[in-house]
Write a structure and sequence with these properties.
heterodimer; A: mainly alpha; 19 helices; B: alpha/beta; Aminopeptidase; 2 domains; eight-stranded mixed sheet; Gaa1-like, GPI transamidase component (chain B); transmembrane (chain B); transmembrane helix (chain B)
């Protein structure tokens, strides 16, 4: 059996796993959907179902405060049946494009397609995210598509995917910056960038306008989809850093913290893109990793994108302080502890919010360590390459 | 970071790393010893605190109680009736209690659970309250020791009659008369929170009364507070109960402390109470099919702060004194404006008035669990392979090839999944095969498992089959060993926050697993001892037998604290020489101990949501089996000696 065939076999096996588990054990979706790791009010399957219910019963879903999904997505899902198949297929597509991205990168060392396929197909994080049926899976797919098309220099496709992806989730517009840098890097034309921006704005406008028409000429979906994320309207515990501040601080500080958190989530976008102009896939990936703890409503499904793409960057493993195996293990351990602390707080009532937040903080610290470790490794590798030194030579570089 | 860099450089400069790696097993042992030492330190002066009422609203014992002589007459009257009808069928008894409660003014109901056990309960919707919260008073027909709860039932009837006349209540009063304080009560509590139509709001607290004697007086009270899965009632409630009891002149006993020790407040007595508390918390919820539950386990998991008052002795203060204690507790809870949230949910009591809070005792279990982390690290860094003894530690020695890595992980995963499957199957088995009808089967199962695990532990002694020496085998075994130890460490750490005592006791019992070394089969002799010592089923046997023999730690403490030869002789005489060990009925009864505990373990989750069996079969047992397999593999060369052989 050749390489390509076996890759497809593995991905198909992954697809079957994602299909068989919910078929044999249908409660798994609601269990995961109730867990704090996989659901937020913005992306949970529960609220999606509620939105679909309202829509099919001719009640305007955007009248209340429950549905935070873009209208086109909701309309699409109200027509879809066999959601198990849909989500399994979407997630397998992510795996497929991950393999493609891995194939198309220009890194000197990388894993074979088979390893990448195995890694994604049997990745517990990926499987669990699929089973949780959160719409973030679609968001991940759209981002992977953006990366895939950018790598192939199919910029129009990647801009349209990014527009869709931005339409789906607010934070994704941050990726415009590395994408524009990519376009400039490959064309060296400022006009191309301007044209791309116009295309981006045009596609987004088209999407938003059709949503506007779809929701009976109301702009309320804008508030529900995007403003409520930016303004952190639903203060619900999650694995991120935001919620604790807004539950604990006095109300008159909240606008200050809102701006701080929002600025913080954006602050590294431009510097990352400028610093890693020659490797914008890496910059975008680091950005995705950074967003995992800087965004308002992160879930494990978001984390999945970053930790799945980790396998593409084998070339930087050499200079890491902590091996990816260790960091992956660490993340899994903390993710196991999180529900325990949530349980101690919410069900047993014997712990409190501090317990859960503390362990969430550990997760965020772990992620910052992983992200900065990769950054430092990237910088070192670049240095070695630029000076033509063998990567295995023992030279101590020091951070200033 | 700069400091870390400096340390790292120093370590490199002096070549400390290999030495450090080689001494990891010692560090691991040291950590466990430190953990034990930590526990032993807790009862020292200065390590614990005096209890205090943290919630201002409670105000225990601030009102004068009128539950005195005139009410005594009612209690006596009820008691006479109860004595007369105690052996009637449950329906008649239910009718009797219902008619009494209806006369007083309670709404009464009967709940019959799926297995036919009955509970009579009554609700007093208090006029002043908003009908959202309730306080519960429970008097089971049978106490945890299997006696008829005559005094308890009478006192409860007298109390609720008296409560109905008071106009102070802001929370509903629910009175419950279950057949027993374990499964029947648990079924009722579960039903109350899920299916019952007639309820009185969320339960804030529950007080269970056990008073088996027919006497008018009692000597002191024992307070039980331990729920399943390491859950305890809020310390404020315990403090209230203790404070009120002492205010009324009762001495309070914890964990069956004998009367003579109630005045003691010295290091040995505090340590004894602490250890008994740890043991009680770790074994809570492992109840035999009948008899044993004191009520606290039944309310566990529903956020109901539960206490059991057990009357001890038949002379001293009159029964209304206990009534006044319970009344004052009810009044205190009634004063509460919010839920119990002040004070501690995690604590260890040393005496009724002294406690250690979670911050002070948690490090003990952290240390013992950390010992497993270190030993797993040590295993991964090739320390456990005896062939590596003389190889200097370096990066090359630690390298694992991909195939052995995958094989080792797969081996461990298979064992874990197998153990989880077997554990779950046993739980399913216990839910379909009734204990009473198949006692023999359970006895065979339990003792079969105990004997089998002990026998297979000696396998390393008898195995002679030699394998072709290869580094792949060494590496596979190393990965399996290291991962299994790490898995156990992680399980113990996760368990820490939920159930400190269980985590600590399992890590101590499983500690010998860290001594397991593998090598050529002829060198694996000592492993059998460690395997036997750390077998979950050996501990099951020990716990079961100790339970049946009614082992009392206080006797041991007495012997050590006031050591004298005549005392030792006396104790040996009464406890060992006077016992007819070969008497078949006695022996059978003792051997039945582990069987009952095992049944309690298997059914714990179904009946009380006790996780103990899951923790054992999901974490401890797979690691034990893994260690057994490792010791049965012939590992003849070190991990990095590939080249020499090929």
């Amino acid at each position: 059996m050749n390489m390509v065939d076996s890759t497809y076999t593995i991905l198909t096996t992954g697809f079957i796993i994602r299909l068989v588990v919910p078929a044999l054990y249908p409660q798994i979706t609601s269990i995961l959907d109730k867990s704090v790791l996989f659901s937020t009010p913005i992306s949970s399957f529960r609220s999606l179902q509620e939105g679909i219910f309202l829509l099919t019963n001719n009640i305007d879903p955007y009248n209340g405060e429950v549905v935070h999904f873009p209208p086109l997505l909701l309309a699409l899902f109200s027509k879809l049946t066999h959601l198990n198949v849909v989500f399994a297929a979407l997630d397998t597509l992510i795996g497929f494009f991950l393999v493609q991205i891995n194939k198309n990168t220009k890194y000197s060392t990388k894993f074979s397609s088979r390893v990448v396929a195995i890694f994604y197909a049997f990745n517990p994080l990926a499987i669990l995210s699929t089973l949780s049926k959160s719409t973030t899976v679609i968001n991940n797919l759209s981002l992977i598509l953006v990366f895939h098309f950018t790598l192939q220099n199919k910029f129009k496709a990647s801009i349209v995917s990014l527009a869709v992806s931005t339409y789906l989730a607010y934070y994704n517009w941050y990726f415009v910056v590395p994408l524009m840098f990519s376009i400039y890097q490959s064309t060296r034309l400022q006009q191309a960038v301007v044209r791309s921006i116009i295309l981006y704005i045009a596609s987004i406008s088209a999407l938003l306008y059709s949503s506007y028409i779809l929701t009976n000429n109301s702009l309320r979906f804008l508030y529900l989809n995007y403003a409520s994320v930016v303004l952190f309207k639903k203060i619900v515990p999650n694995i991120g850093l935001w919620w604790y501040f807004f539950t604990e601080i006095f109300d008159f500080f909240s606008s200050f913290y809102l701006s701080v958190f929002n600025i913080y989530s954006f602050i590294f976008v431009v510097p990352l893109a400028t610093r890693f102009r020659n490797d914008l896939l890496f910059a975008s990936w680091i950005l995705a990793g950074f967003m995992n703890f800087a965004k308002a409503y992160p879930t494990v499904t978001d984390l999945n994108l970053f930790y799945s793409m980790l396998i593409i960057f084998k070339v930087y493993y050499k200079k890491l302080k902590f091996s990816p195996f260790l960091s992956y293990l660490g993340v899994i351990l903390i993710l196991t502890l999180l529900p325990i602390f949530y349980y101690v707080w919410m069900s047993l009532n014997s712990g409190n919010a501090n317990f859960f937040y503390a362990i969430g903080l550990v997760l965020s610290i772990l992620q910052t360590i992983i992200v900065s470790d990769f950054l430092w490794s990237k910088i070192q590798t670049e240095y070695f390459e630029s000076k033509n030194i063998n990567i295995d030579t023992i030279v101590k570089l020091t951070q200033i | 970071m700069a400091l870390l860099e400096t340390i790292q450089r120093k370590i490199n400069k002096y070549g400390l790393l290999p030495k450090l790696v080689r001494s990891l097993p010692k560090i691991s042992t040291l950590l466990t010893l430190l953990g034990v030492l930590w526990i032993l330190m807790l009862p020292l002066d200065g390590q614990f605190r005096t209890t205090y009422i943290s919630e201002n609203a409670l105000m225990p014992s601030q009102a004068y109680s009128f539950f005195r002589e005139s009410e005594w007459n009612f209690v006596r009257g009820y008691r006479d009736q109860i004595i007369e009808h105690i052996d009637d069928p449950m329906e008649d008894r239910h009718e009797m209690l219902s008619s009494w409660m209806k006369t007083i003014g309670y709404k009464t109901f009967e709940y019959e659970s799926h297995n036919g056990s009955r509970t009579t309960y009554g609700i007093y919707h208090v006029p002043k309250g908003d009908d959202t919260e309730a306080m519960v008073i429970v008097a089971p027909w049978t106490t945890s020791d299997g006696e008829k709860n005559i005094g308890g039932l009478a006192l409860t009837m007298g109390l609720i009659r008296y409560f109905h006349r008071l106009s102070i209540w802001s929370k509903n009063i629910i009175v419950v008369f279950p057949e027993d304080g374990q499964d029947t009560l648990r079924n009722w509590v579960d039903a109350y929170h899920t299916t019952l139509d007639e309820t009185g709001g969320s339960m804030e607290s529950a007080i269970v009364i056990e008073y088996p004697s027919e006497s008018d007086e009692l000597d002191y009270v024992e307070v039980n507070y331990v729920g399943v899965n390491g859950q305890l009632p809020n310390l404020d409630l315990v403090n209230c109960a203790v404070m009120i009891s002492e205010h009324e002149g009762f001495k309070v006993s914890l964990h069956n402390t004998p009367k003579g020790q109630l005045w003691a407040n010295d290091y040995p007595s505090r340590l004894t109470t602490l250890l008994k508390g740890l043991y009680a918390m770790a074994t809570a919820g492992l109840l035999p099919e009948t008899g044993g539950g004191n009520g606290c386990e039944a309310f566990s998991g529903w956020n109901v702060q539960t206490l059991t008052f057990k009357a001890k002795g038949t002379e001293g203060r009159d029964i209304t004194t206990l009534g006044r204690v319970i009344e004052a507790c009810f009044r205190a809870v009634n004063n509460l404006l919010e839920k119990f949230h002040q004070s501690f949910f995690f604590y260890l009591l040393l005496t009724p008035n002294h406690f250690v809070s979670i911050g002070n005792y948690l490090p003990a279990a952290v240390l013992t669990a950390a010992s497993f982390v270190i030993s797993s690290l040590s295993a991964l860094l090739t320390n456990n392979n005896v062939n590596n003894k003389h190889i200097n530690f370096n990066d090359a020695a630690v390298r694992v090839d991909t195939l052995p890595l995958i094989n080792g992980l797969l081996l461990f995963a298979t064992v874990t999944v197998g153990s989880i499957f077997c554990g779950t199957m046993l739980m399913w088995f216990s839910s379909t095969v009734s204990f009473a009808d198949n006692n023999k089967l359970y006895t065979m199962l339990t003792w079969g498992l105990i004997l089998t695990t002990t026998t297979v532990s000696t396998l390393p002694l008898v195995l002679r089959y030699k394998l072709q020496p290869s580094a792949a085998i060494s590496q596979t075994v190393r990965i399996a060993n290291g991962c299994s130890l790490f898995y156990l460490a992680f399980a113990l750490v996760s368990l820490l926050v939920l159930d400190f005592s269980l985590s600590l006791l399992i890590s101590l019992a499983a500690f010998p697993l860290t001594f397991i070394r593998y090598g050529a089969l002829s060198q694996n002799r000592k492993n059998s001892i460690w395997l036997i010592l750390s077998s979950p089923f050996l501990w099951l046997a020990i716990v079961g037998v100790a339970h049946k023999l009614e082992f009392q730690l206080d006797i041991v403490r007495n012997l050590i604290q006031y050591f004298s030869l005549p005392l030792l002789k006396h104790e040996l005489q009464t406890k060992i020489f006077d016992t007819d060990w070969l008497n078949p009925t006695f022996l059978q009864d003792v051997l039945q101990g582990p069987v009952e505990i095992f049944y309690g373990l298997l059914t714990g989750y179904r009946r009380f949501q006790t996780w103990t069996w899951m923790v054992i079969s999901f974490a401890w047992l797979p690691v034990w089996i893994m260690s057994l397999i490792i010791t049965c593999i012939d590992v003849q060369i070190g991990d990095s000696e590939k080249k020499k052989v090929n």
